[in-house]
Amino acid sequence: MTLLVARQLVKRFGALLATDHVSFAVNAGEVHALIGPNGAGKSTLVHLISGLLPADGGSLTLDGVDLTHLAPHRRVAAGLSRCFQVTSIFPRQTVGENLLLAVQAHAGSSFRFVRRRDTDHELLAAAQALARRVTLESEWDRVAGTLPHGAQRKLDVALAIASAPKLLLLDEPMAGMGPVESAEMVALIQRLRQDMAILLIEHDMDAVFQLADRISVLVYGKLLTSGTAAEIQADAQVQAVYLGTEEEARA
């Protein structure tokens, strides 16, 4: 079932056409990767989807709901959540306090604020479940800002999925990670895909080819092609403008 549909999305910055009539779809339950060289327009496209930038043209729907003109918080209510390139955790709070704040924000009761979060058993259970889901239960009492980078990224993901999204946008989740942390993030994404679709923006092509059901390639704001990992790896145009140049750079 098609979950997210972007039709002819356009974003201009003066004379620059940063997003050039981009159309693509994300299916329910899939990991859809968005790749492209630096300056291809990936971040702009993700900002359009999450609502941080208004589109100059085109439309966007999520599970039949028109998101095109909705504010970011209303897109969250419709089932969209996002992790940014830079973590958005509360660094001076503990892991548990971060997670309690997140589940409280989505608890749906305007009266919860009058109670202590750590004594509300329903909220506490939900927060602990989030900690287990991202394998941070052993770090519950640790101040978030003292966590290793990979653990901070996992906490950031936990905050994003507290809303139980239908679609999670992950913006370079492996950035700055070593091999062990990257492998843990790949494993986390594999678990999350059981409950939500994921739009993944990532430069780690090994992770992309391991995770993605489908891949869309952006170049100069335009959608070059979409396909399976095998199709993208074999595509001569993609090799020329992206994968090939990366291999040459490594040589």
What report would you give on this structure?
It is a single chain. The protein is an alpha/beta fold and 251 residues long. It has one domain (2-250): Rossmann fold, CATH 3.40.50. The protein contains 9 helices and 10 strands. The chain has helices spanning 42-50, 72-78, 95-105, 121-133, 149-161, 179-192, 205-211, 229-234, 236-250, and strands spanning 2-13, 16-27, 31-35, 57-62, 65-66, 80-83, 167-171, 197-201, 214-219, 222-227. Strands 6-7-8-3-9-10 form a 6-stranded mixed beta sheet, with helices on both faces. Helix 6 links the parallel strand 7 (167-171) and strand 8. The radius of gyration is 19 Å and the shape is globular. Mean pLDDT is 90; it is low at 110-114 and 246-251.
CATH class: Alpha Beta
Shape: globular
What's the overall average pLDDT, rounded?
A: 90
Number of domains: 1
Instruction: Give the CATH H-level superfamily.
Output: P-loop containing nucleotide triphosphate hydrolases
Helix/strand-derived category reads alpha/beta
Please outline the major beta sheet: 6 strands, mixed
Beta content: 25-35%
Strand arrangement, major sheet: 6-7-8-3-9-10
Rg on CA atoms, Å: 19 Å
List low-confidence stretches.
Answer: 110-114, 246-251
